[in-house]
């Protein structure tokens, strides 16, 4: 297990103290106006004691109209900075680095809670630029709140992912058409944040490569350019399964992970998420070319997953589904547990 617990320098700011990050976990326990709640603070205090290298907030919307979930955390106004600062402080006191995951729901924004659906294909050029600037402004708020950096949510069909997709992006201006144009919004956000933030501020990018009309070959090309130009500090590959095999196309038969870990990365660090629930699998990921690993459900089940792995090279997460009482006993709020009930494989639906 020694490799998992070696420090990992980043291009900007402090080094990661080990190779295990906590995934950005939506938990729907903020206040209705997007402000951090006492439950958000308690969650951060719990995971801050867990031994992670870096802890991210769940998807945090950068514009009021970009909200996707009820009780989603927000960073679209100065009024939210104080609550976020408390979360950053808790993470820092626990010894981890911190990041706000910047998010806009795009065409999936929820009108029932004030969201304004913003399909990539129908936004005006001026509206796209406004959203770009909202990401950049949100990053500055994160920096003022004391976070070490931000991570851009470019996965799961949300707006940055949506612009990358030829299925969802039919634009004819500079933000649509060619691969270069569809990547432009993501690149302008990254470059804008780097331009206005401090020299130690860290930028991550969460990328998914499945569904939503995304093309693996194109995404590899875009990623290769970002890595070669060292535009980010770390790439977070959000895979449904970190061991999956590509089923079609030029990379058929290869692991999805290897398609990206085989790229020259210069000073950028590359990691992945996807059903990492054991010490053994975490170590295998490093052997398969990752610089770090990202855990989600394993971190919910045991907030101190890194400490468990350090103590036991054979550590395995509890089997799913678990009972709501198990989660309560571990310290999760009822709001968080209610959010998890959306997935019957996680919380036993037969248990009240």
TrEMBL record:
One Pfam match: Oxidored_FMN
Q: Where is the NADH:flavin oxidoreductase/NADH oxidase N-terminal domain?
A: 3-310
Q: Which UniProt keywords apply?
A: Flavoprotein, Oxidoreductase
UniProt entry tagged with the keyword Transport: no
Which superkingdom is the protein from?
Bacteria
Cross-referenced PANTHER family? BINDING OXIDOREDUCTASE, PUTATIVE (AFU_ORTHOLOGUE AFUA_2G08260)-RELATED (PTHR43656)
**Name of the protein this chain belongs to:** NADH:flavin oxidoreductase
Instruction: State the species of origin.
Output: Paractinoplanes pyxinae
């Amino acid at each position: 297990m020694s490799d998992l617990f070696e420090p990992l320098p980043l291009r900007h700011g402090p080094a990661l103290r080990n190779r295990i990050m906590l995934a950005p976990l939506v938990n729907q326990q903020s206040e209705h106006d997007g402000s951090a709640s006492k439950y958000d603070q308690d969650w951060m205090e719990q995971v801050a004691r867990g031994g992670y290298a870096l802890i991210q907030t769940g998807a945090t919307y950068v514009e009021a109209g970009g909200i996707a979930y009820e009780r989603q955390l927000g960073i679209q106004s100065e009024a939210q900075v104080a609550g976020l600062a408390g979360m950053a402080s808790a993470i820092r006191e626990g010894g981890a680095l911190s990041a706000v995951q910047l998010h806009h729901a795009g065409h999936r924004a929820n009108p029932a809670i004030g969201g304004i659906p913003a399909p990539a294909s129908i936004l005006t050029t001026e509206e796209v630029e406004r959203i770009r600037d909202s990401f950049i402004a949100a990053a500055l708020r994160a920096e003022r709140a004391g976070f070490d950096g931000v991570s851009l949510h470019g996965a799961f069909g949300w707006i940055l992912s949506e612009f990358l997709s030829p299925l969802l992006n039919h634009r004819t201006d500079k933000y649509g058409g060619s691969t270069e144009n569809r990547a432009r919004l993501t690149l302008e956000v990254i470059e804008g944040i780097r331009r206005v933030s401090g020299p130690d501020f860290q930028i991550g990018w969460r990328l998914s490569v499945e569904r939503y009309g995304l093309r693996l070959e194109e995404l590899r090309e875009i990623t290769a350019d970002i890595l070669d130009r060292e535009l980010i500090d770390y790439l977070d590959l959000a895979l449904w399964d970190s061991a999956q095999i590509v089923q079609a196309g030029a990379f058929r038969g290869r692991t999805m992970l290897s398609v990206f870990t085989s790229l020259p990365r210069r000073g950028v660090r590359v990691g992945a998420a996807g059903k990492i629930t054991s010490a053994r699998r975490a170590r295998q990921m490093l052997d398969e070319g990752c610089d770090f690993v990202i855990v989600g459900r394993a971190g919910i089940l045991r907030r101190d997953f890194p400490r468990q792995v350090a103590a036991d090279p054979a550590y395995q997460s509890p089997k799913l589904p678990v009972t709501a009482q198990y989660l309560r006993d571990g310290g999760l709020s009822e709001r968080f547990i209610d959010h998890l009930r959306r997935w019957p494989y996680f919380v036993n639906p037969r248990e009240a």
